[in-house]
Amino acid sequence: MSEEKTDIYRAETYQYPLPEERIARFPLPERDQSKLLIYREGVIRQDVFARLSDHLPTGSLLVFNDTKVIPARLMFRKKTGAVIEIFCLDPYDPPEYSVAFGRHGECRWKCLIGNRKRWKEGPLEDIRESPEGKVRLTATLENSGNESIVRFNWDPPHHSFAGVLSLFGIVPLPPYLKREAVELDRERYQTIYARNNGSVAAPTAGLHFTPHVLKLLTEKGISSAHLTLHVAAGTFQPVKHEDIRQHEMHTEHFSVSSAFVTRLATHDAPVIPVGTTSVRTLESLYILGTNLLTGRKTKDHLLVEQWEWKHIPQDIPRKEALDALAKWMHSKGMDRLFASTRLMIIPGYRFALADAMITNFHQPGSTLLMLVAAYTGNDWRKIYTYALENGFRFLSYGDACLLFRY
User: Is 176 inside a domain boundary?
Assistant: First the structure.
């Protein structure tokens, strides 16, 4: 194996110096006034995000992730004064996101527990004032194994769990922002097109879009489509192994409509995902379709594994893969596909459904940066150096870049 080939698996390959002052702690006053770096065929330019439409080809299809960040952090104070934090990760009973958020009176969630040693027994309780009167929320720990299952009960029970979280919960900001959430984050750490509850982190490339930007895109003949991938807490999990192949990628759940798959299959102009979550979902759809064509896996196996892409043919056109997926969904009478992905994209990956992409600037050594490196090759260093030298703001509330593959 060549030294260059070996280096792509070394975690240090994806490190770069990021000064603390370059991390955007808060959003800009206006979403679309973020800077926009444009990379195409090795050339870098910059503009402001409000003029995104000037840089996209007419006829392009922008793919947005319409997941909605939930106020997933719940803080309970015991009578002893100890504060217990419950971080809601995934619905357990009922397991479907939309059903769980619509549940009345009781539900169970997989959670992370902060200050767990202080919660030895008994339920936790909090009371808040809503426009309709007082609401009492009780949390009971039912399983303290590898996964902590917490049962939530609330009274009066006519409130939905989504409403309960809105009343009691705190927006879960990324740890690298090193601050507590404020009221502003409820609006700004959310895309304007978010509609499906479930994420514990925002698909941040979408934070720059405004109604005005969307209007300009439409006027230029650029269309849009929506998928849903719920961003999991694992998105912030650092790569701790020197050999990145030893990293265990987290699982995230996504869904798309049958109309979306059909539209994607018949779209001949550039497909441009907004954010790495959209990229990974689109590529996961391609892999599922390829599996159907090749018979690699059982047709009901709807989890894309971390390194599955290394074992599929590289020459199947995306239209064929998506047609196969659309036909399978039709045969099953499925209006919507619900699936999961652990896809980890690193250099060597062949992109099937991302002719360009919009993304923010990512943490050193993160799996998100590895995806960018897979997309741009060694030029990712040139892109990030340019951004650092030209006053770009980094990470979730930072600026954006538009990367072309053609």
Answer: no
